[in-house]
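Hi Y.,

Following your request, here is the sequence exactly as I used it, all 1185 residues.
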Amino acid sequence: MFSCPRRWGAGSGYERVPAGPEAQKCNPEKNASFFSRMTYSWFSRVIVLGYKKPLEREDLCELHESDSSYIVCPIFEKQWRKEVLRTQERQEVKASFSKETHARKPSLVYALWNTFKFVLIQVALFKVFADILAFTSPLIMKQMIVFCEHHPDFGWSGYGYALALFVVVFLQTLILQQYQRFNMLTSAKIKTAVIGLLYKKALLLSNVSRKKFSTGEITNLMSADAQQLMDLTANLSLLWSAPFQILMAISLLWQELGPAVLAGVAVLVFVIPVNALVATRVKKLKKSQTKNKDKQIKLLNEILHGIKILKLYAWESSYQKKIIKIREQELEVQKSAGYLAVFSMLTLTCIPFLVSLATFGIYFLLDEGNILTATKVFTSMSLFNILRLPLFDLPMVISAVVQTRVSLDRLEDFLNTEELHPQNIETNYIGDHAIGFTNASFSWDKTGVPVLKNLNIKIPEGALVAVVGPVGSGKSSVLSAILGEMEKLTGVVQRKGSVAYVAQQAWIQNCILQENILFGSIMQKQFYERVLEACALLPDLEQLPNGDQTEIGERGVNISGGQKHRVSLARAVYSGADIYLLDDPFAAVDVHVGKQLFEKVIGSSGILKNKTRILVTHNLTLLPEMDLIVVMESGRVAHMGTYHELLSKTRNLTNLLQAFSEQEKAHALKRVSVINSRTILKDQIVEQNDRPSLNQGKQFSMKKEKIPVGGVKFSIILKYLQAFGWLWVWLSVAAYLGQNLVGVAQNLWLSAWVKEAKHMNEFTEWKQIRSNKLNIYGLLGLMQGFFVCSGAYILTRGSLAASRTLHTQLLDNVLHLPLRFFEINPIGQIINRFAKDMFIIDIRFHYYLRNWVNCTLDVIGTVLVIGGALPLFILGVIPLMFLYLTIQITQSLNFWVRKACEIETNAVSIERVCEYENMDKEAPWIMSKRPPSQWPEKGIVEFINYQARYRDDLGLALRDITFQTHGEEKIGIVGRTGAGKSTLSNCLFRIVERSGGKIIIDGIDISTIGLHDLRGRLNIIPQDPVLFSGTLQMNLDPLDKYSDRELWEVLELCHLKDFVQSLPKKLLHEISEGGENLSVGQRQLVCLARALLRKTKILILDEATASIDFETDTLVQTTIRKEFSDCTILTIAHRLHSIIDSDRVLVLDSGRITEFETPQNLICQKGLFFEMLTEAGITQDSVTK
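Below is the corresponding structure, written out as tokens. Let me know if you'd prefer a different format.
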């Protein structure tokens, strides 16, 4: 089952979201018997099914209710809230006694303990029983050796010992598996709970917190840091189990070797402070590592969301260098951590040897009569072998604790960061108005400059209110203040009822269209269809492949900008809220569609006629329909009143109307023309039928993440080894082979030593050879330490090389993928490759590979040693292996299988990273044929029988396009939604490649040159204004090619100079992620300034001024005509007045050119262009002017 937080303000609980029918299978564990639970036979059906075919979601049963996120998450959140309150109470108590108190953060560990303590105790009990049974085996083995020495004829006692040993190991295996199962399940539940809390926190962040934590950093918290916490939980029992096993081993060794064991204890005590120093250094490196990882993921997230801009401007290589620079810093830290790991491996390997050497040495020195017998040697060595694992694990888990402490600090910092304050707005207000501001001032953070100042607004219930003003005047900020997303500095804000919000940039989910509109609400068929009709979506549904069941891609990539806004509007309408906040929803739709939306949805006869509606708009022709108009200027209410009041009492509205032509002004002075709805619907259907359908153009299905089936191919492991470097591969194999050979030699040497001691007749003879034997045993130990140290160093160097190579290849492959790939693949999947999968490759995979190689060699060595002593044993190995795979009797083989499974599981990350290698790429960035340095000089663009389609299996999006521009000519490109306007501009940049024909620019076929040579010589102001986090200067000039003087000049031309000069840091003003601390209009002007800096001979304007007011639009158009007067300009626009003065207008319909003439001639022809002008209310007189 899945779960999701309820909508903000609806409570702190979670709702159970029912999955499909495939998840309704009852969990067989609920009714399983004790034997079935202990042997996992209840899971046999899934194992058998997985053997027959790859498992799919519907093959699995539902989770046990106690394991489901909708149960786990709210329980943990409740404990976290309690911890927060307890911490606040403690701070208040301390503050009452002392003025200076150190602020203590609420502890995530305490909240986790209070949530999962009973399960953790259960896990601990399983581990205790398993450890006790582990030490029972050497005791039984000791009795078996004593029995063999004194009773060579055997007897029933011998069979009894053998049976006892089998039973103990069998029970240990069963209990150990239960421990492993509950341990991993608890770890997963902890990760689930933490991620659920992180997700809910992310929805409540204040503006200050959003600046502090980018989307990439939050993603990293949910992936890497939550995973780190899960990994530690899985090994948490070792913190007490390892010391327990060490104490048990030492106490049993005391019985065998007496006080000599204290020498081994002394060695252990000596190593503890060494490990503490290493752990301290590892903690510092972990902090540096996470900072670098955060920076990389943050930049990657912005690159992938702005990938179209990077491709259009040919910036991929520049940003690739930035990523690689951060990556190199990350690898430097990783290298230092690797060298510390080399030292740790040396100490870890030498500790068991040093303990045994010191113990045996002191054992001989304490009493010259001490002789090693078979009983003492093999019992002691068995205990030393048991001691070896906790000695190996304890420092590792301590290191993991240190690293997880860093992750916990990061998680706690995020969870304790500032949230939106509910007290910013009174939502329980009961009065005669829906929204009220009284002397209210707001800023984006508590210490920031006020953005809205001294607002006094009263909005009656059911009123239709327009908020107008120039770019940056605070229109959208007023809506944010009503939502409670701004910091209230002074005054009172009141709001009555629920709120629905339609953002200026439409927010679309990656799900079917119906789910986008319902947004979790219950389906009410009649009202749903009414909403679709009102929002002009019915004709769209007829054209979509599956109607309202059609899947919409991430960020709505497979629907037009106008369709996105209409879907977003429909979602708000369907919610049935009391108050509707509408941030310029008509900017991206055609004029006649906007009129229908106003009439059917927002206006006095619309579906929302009885609701409170606040509309931010630049369309001043709508003002006569308003009950109240609020005119914003510099964050203040300049004027407020009805349309006629403002028109009669102030000149402000008149000044705004002067941005229109005389015809538009006259049109605004009368009531908005109400176009017959049937006519509109008819026009809309014609528009939909004329344009290429989604089957012909951008038919879409969001690509599901590829899930590998079957075993991991050896070719994947081979790719890793190639990246590792074959020299390092063979050296590491040699080192680990040498390490295990020396380990075998140690055991053989002890065996031979005991055998010689047994045949010694005189004590003096034994005393003479004792020192030599001990010295050789010590030398073998030192050799083993050398091999271990060498192997760890080689592994570090090789793994660094593999990490660097695979990351570089991954980044290069991703940046060379066509734009279409990013439209059909969720950005989160790609980010996961760089975050989680690279984390596994960097940190885990080589560790698992090393353990598996070591364990494999250890098992082989053991088999060979026993086989050499007892050749008949080899005949029993095969059935023993089969028996083990059945009941998992041998701990060493158990460990070997686990590591083999871990290798295969984690090798999937290598497969995912290499997945993009064989995908279709864009053309090369640079080719052997390169254009002249001054190309293009004239700006002549020629399309010859050009055709294009989005995929080979789709119809043509452009058909037989043939036209030619003159140098420095201004071309307007118009057409209804989906006619192919933006596709035409994409083809110029080879975002969409040709299916036939060619494009020639100044005599060069653009298909014969590299993409960067092409895109770097063209200029575009795109429809969606994309900014990156960083300074304003960096956003204007990411390649650092221009002087400050040039930057200020373009800012002045874009009418942004005054705004930037008012900022405290001016050009160094920090832009937040996605440019969220600028209005959409300001972002568009920054993009214009960027284009002015990058002055080339050909400029494409792709609906570039849709998000700015008419007055600023007029100024911008004037600037463009002046500054690009010697350039060829291709303008795509919804606002037809912006292309009226073009030299020629190109009219597209259904992917074909239907008209191409001067505006005056096209009007005389009374074709499609004339119809569009008529719908926009533009007359022939205004065109001739």
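The mean pLDDT is 79.

Thanks again,
Q.
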